Amino acid sequence: MHKSKKRVLLLSEGFGSGHTQAAYALAVGIRHLNPDVQTKVLELGKFLNPVLGPLIVSAYRKTVTKQPKLVGHLYRSNYKRSLNRFAQLALHRLFYTQTSQVITQLKPDAIVCTHPVPNAVVARLKRLGLNVPLFTLITDYDAHGTWASPEVNKYLVSTPIVKRKLMEHGVPDSRIEVTGIPVHPDFWTSCDKDEIRKQFNLNAMPTVLIMGGGWGLLNDENGLFEYMAGYRDNVQLIFCAGNNEKAKERLENNPLFRHPNIKILGFTREINKLMDVSDLLITKPGGMTCTEGLSKGIPMLFYEPIPGQEEENCEYFVRNGFGELLTDRETIDRWFKLIQEPYAAGEYRRSLLTKRNEQYNPERCSRAVLQLMQ
C-alpha cells in the first residue's frame, strides 16, 4: 500500500517580513532535501482574519517607523513575560477555534511556528489535547520570553547564545537544538555574475547593496545615503526600497541619485543575485537579512537597528566579525575604499566565507525538522 506523504504546516505572522521568509525558506529547504514531504505556509492573522490582520500589521509598521524607542521599551519591559496573558485576551476567541479547524483539515505530521503568536496559539491547543509535535524556529539572534512554552517539543535556534537565553526562560537544554536560521536554497549557491549584471542592467565595478528590509525603511535623516552618492563615479549603488513606494519615489526624485551607477529598485525576490554581484551590504539588522548576508559571505554595515531584536542581531554579527555598525561618514569612507581595492576586498570576502563554513550550514535546520519527524 502506498504510504501517504508526510505533511508539515508552517505558521507565521506578518510583523516584519522575516518570520514568513524563514517559514518559506524552511519549507523549500525541507522539500529540497526530501521531495516526499508536503509543506504549507500560513500567516495566521491574515489567514484567519483578512480584515483585522493587515490593520494590526500596518499599525505595528507605523510604530516601528515613527517610534522605535517605544518598540524597544515594550520589547525590554516584556522580555521575561510569556504570551499567556496576551493569549487569553484579544486572540483568544478569534484564533483558537479557527486554527484548530485548519489543523483538523490539513492533518499535519508536524507544526513549525516562526512567530511567537501562532506558537502560543498552538501551544494552548496542545494543552487542550492536540497531539501534533510542535517545533519552534526563533528567527532572531535573541530569545524573548514570549517564545517560551512548555508544550514546544523542540526549539530550533540560531546560536548557542540564544540557547542559553532560552534556558534562562526555563526551557530545558534537551528541547533546544542549535541549527542556525534557514535561508532559501537560492542563497546556498552563487549565480553567474555577468548574467546577473545583464539582467539588472548593472556595471562590472565595486558595488554596494543598500536594503531597507521588507518595509524599505530608507529614511535618510543623517544624510548618509546622500554622502554615499558622492562615490557614484567609482562605486555602484543599488537601493532596494522593498514595498515602500514613498521611499522609492523620494530616492528617484533626488537629483543626486540620477546617475548610471545608481539603481533604485522596489520589491524584488532576487536579493540572492544582487548579493552575488555586490561587495558590501548596508542593511537594517533583521535576523533573516543578516543570515542571508552571512550565507553569501558579504561584509555588512548595519544602520539604525530598532531597539530590541535588531540591536541583539546587530551585536551578534558585529561581535563575530561579519559586520559593523554604520554610525558616521568615516565608516563609509573606510569600506568604500576597501571595496575599490580588488585584492583586499577578495581576501576579506574569502575570510568571511571560511568563517561562515565554520559557523553555519544552510541545510541544518531543514535536516533537523526531517529528523525530528522520523
Helix-strand layout with pairing:
Elements: E1 6-12, H1 18-33, E2 37-43, H2 44-48, H3 52-66, H4 68-77, H5 84-88, H6 91-106, E3 110-113, H7 116-127, E4 134-137, E5 154-157, H8 160-168, E6 176-178, H9 193-200, E7 207-211, H10 224-229, E8 236-240, H11 245-252, E9 262-265, H12 271-276, E10 280-283, H13 287-296, E11 300-302, H14 309-319, E12 323-325, H15 329-338, H16 342-359, H17 364-372
Parallel strand pairs: 1-2, 1-3, 3-4, 4-5, 5-6, 7-8, 7-10, 8-9, 10-11, 11-12
Question: Can you tell me about this structure?
Answer:
The chain has 374 residues and is of the alpha/beta class. It has 2 domains: 6-182 and 363-372, Glycogen Phosphorylase B (Rossmann fold, 3-Layer(aba) Sandwich), CATH 3.40.50.2000; 189-340, Rossmann fold, CATH 3.40.50. 47% of the residues lie in helices and 14% in strands. A 6-stranded parallel β-sheet has the order 2-1-3-4-5-6, sandwiched between helices. The protein has a 6-stranded parallel β-sheet with strand order 9-8-7-10-11-12, with helices on both faces. Strand 3 (110-113), helix 7 (116-127) and strand 4 (134-137) form a beta-alpha-beta unit. Helix 1 packs across helix 17 (364-372).
